[in-house]
Amino acid sequence: MNIKTMPLGPLQTNCYIVYTDESAIIFDPGGDGEKLVSWLQEVNVTPVAILLTHAHFDHIGAIDYLKEYFQIPVYVHEAEAEWLEDPQKNGSGLFPVGEIKTSQGPDNYIKTGSTTVDGFTFEVRHTPGHSPGGVIFIFHEERYIIGGDSLFQLGIGRTDLPGGDHQQLIDSINNEMFSLADDFTVYPGHGDRTTIGFEKKENPFLN
Ligand SMILES: [Zn+2]
Ligand SMILES: [Zn+2]
């Protein structure tokens, strides 16, 4: 299973595409739908679903475009079920980026635990703090995590947006992420990838 990083949208949020020879899951498509589609066509894989680490505006901007193009479902944690269509909740109304929203709500809720979506198997853990419905996706066999805006290289997510909670974020990282082995790679929503071991040792917000 391969993973492709593609910074997209107004904040160049990392979109991740996890893919096989045939199909793909798209995580956090922040914008620039055409760019994403042309890459998918280049490598000749068909996306089967859009999964969100959380529903902030900078992670959702290409959803309408992709849904229209591929007719694929969107998954988000139930705690952010209403955020996709609501610029106040998803934060775009609080930033000078213009209103960013989707025309419909999610098709499915993300459940925690081990899960299979169209042949892709991974574990979901709920990691609130940056936002109430934040989740991480753990690919145990491949030893990587799609971590959203919880843990960054030498940083953590902001907690001043609606529903944010600093202590809850610290607890989520300690309990749900740092319980994974040191060699797990973390693919964050912004910036470069890192590892659990490096952040345990070096991250100034968690020591
Ligand atoms: Zn966010
Ligand atoms: Zn973000």
Q: On the 0-100 scale, what is the average pLDDT?
A: 97
Helix content: 10-25%
- What is the H/E order? EEEHEHEHEEEEEEEHEEH
- The CATH class assignment is Alpha Beta
What's the number of extended β-strand segments?
14
Task: Output the structural class.
Answer: alpha/beta
Write the layout of secondary structure elements.
Blueprint: E1 2-8, E2 13-19, E3 23-27, H1 33-43, E4 46-51, H2 63-70, E5 74-76, H3 87-90, E6 108-109, E7 113-117, E8 120-126, E9 135-139, E10 144-148, E11 151-152, E12 155-156, H4 166-177, E13 185-188, E14 194-195, H5 196-202
Parallel strand pairs: 3-4, 4-5, 5-6, 10-13
Antiparallel strand pairs: 1-2, 2-3, 7-8, 8-9, 9-10, 11-12, 13-14
Q: How does this model look, in words?
A:
- It is a single chain.
- This protein is an alpha/beta fold and 207 residues long.
- It has a single domain, classed as Metallo-beta-lactamase, Chain A.
- It has 5 helices and 14 strands.
- The protein has helices at 33-43, 63-70, 87-90, 166-177, 196-202; strands at residues 2-8, 13-19, 23-27, 46-51, 74-76, 108-109, 113-117, 120-126, 135-139, 144-148, 151-152, 155-156, 185-188, 194-195.
- The strands form 3 sheets. The chain has a 6-stranded mixed β-sheet. A 6-stranded mixed β-sheet has the order 7-8-9-10-13-14. Strands 11-12 form a two-stranded antiparallel ribbon.
- A hairpin with a 2-residue loop joins strand 11 (151-152) and strand 12.
- It is globular.
- The protein starts with a strand and ends in a 5-residue tail after the last helix.
- The mean pLDDT is 97.
- One zinc ion (ZN) is lined by residues 13, 56, 58-59, 149, 189-190.
